[in-house]
Amino acid sequence: DQQVKQNSPSLSVQEGRISILNCDYTNSMFDYFLWYKKYPAEGPTFLISISSIKDKNEDGRFTVFLNKSAKHLSLHIVPSQPGDSAVYFCAASAISNQFYFGTGTSLTVIP
Amino acid sequence: NAGVTQTPKFQVLKTGQSMTLQCAQDMNHEYMSWYRQDPGMGLRLIHYSVGAGITDQGEVPNGYNVSRSTTEDFPLRLLSAAPSQTSVYFCASSYSSGSTYEQYFGPGTRLTVT
Fold first, then answer.
1. B1 touches chain A (CB under 8 A)
2. How many CB atoms within 10 Å of residue A98?
3. CA distance B106 to chain A (A)
4. Considering CB atoms only, which of A43, A46, A91 is closest to B90?
5. Which of A10, A47, A79, B96 is the most buried (most CB within 10 A)?
6. What are the φ and ψ backbone dihedral angles of A85, each rounded to 5 degrees?
7. pLDDT tens across the length of chain A (111 residues)
8. Closest residue of B to A104, CA-based?
9. Backbone angles phi, psi at A53, to 5 degrees
10. B34 bridge partner residues
11. Quick one: residue B40, left, alpha or beta (phi over 0 = left, psi -120 to 50 = alpha)?
12. Cβ neighbours of B69 (radius 10 Å)
């Protein structure tokens, strides 16, 4: 049973516009959430994280929003750049260093 | 710093063969994990370790063994390979700093079992 879900397998966005990637979870015990970016033939790389005590975390062009009541988080990328084209995974943890991953969303930024 | 290294990059096995996927990290991280990535399934945790000598099962541990004799190394053993173990395997190491964690992944091993 998938505890972390990314319901959009793919997303296309024009360069310069906002990309919004969504993630839902079912386990109310999750208290730490992360986003990873993955290029083909490489391992995932950490992008940004958020603790359940916050509802927003920003790092440059990347912002993660957490809505605990809806068990939903989203990643905003503004402005989107062609180099952002990759697969994005969200992950959640209830116990230190045990992570559950979503199935990924493939983002294509069109120049 | 090499980060997390994995060998081999590619491997083809016949059903019933055994092999060990190697993983090493040079960041002195306590925590190490093995994941497999299958189409439409995301990354699923196989086994993890919270320090040398300590390992535990993740979501999908059946058919895999691990050991952690040193902080640096965390090999994954397939005792009798099955076609269902065809996948891309990622090793990760992580640390926690207060309330934050960050995982670093290796480049992956693509395994095909025929």
1. no
2. 17
3. 5
4. A43
5. A47
6. -60, 120
7. 779 999 999 999 999 999 999 999 999 999 999 999 999 889 999 999 999 999 999 999 999 999 999 999 999 999 999 999 999 999 998 876 688 999 999 999 999
8. B42
9. -80, -10
10. B47, B91
11. left
12. 10
Q: How many A/B residue pairs have CB atoms within 8 Å?
A: 68
The pair of structure tokens assigned to B48 is 């993890």
Concatenated DSSP letters of chain B: ---EEEE-SEEEE-TT--EEEEEEESS--SEEEEEEEETTTEEEEEEEEEETTEEEE-SS-TTEEE--SSSSB--EEESS--GGG-EEEEEEEEEEETTEEEEEE---EEEEE-
- The two tokens of residue A87 are 């697969």
Nearest chain B residue to A99 by CA distance is: B45
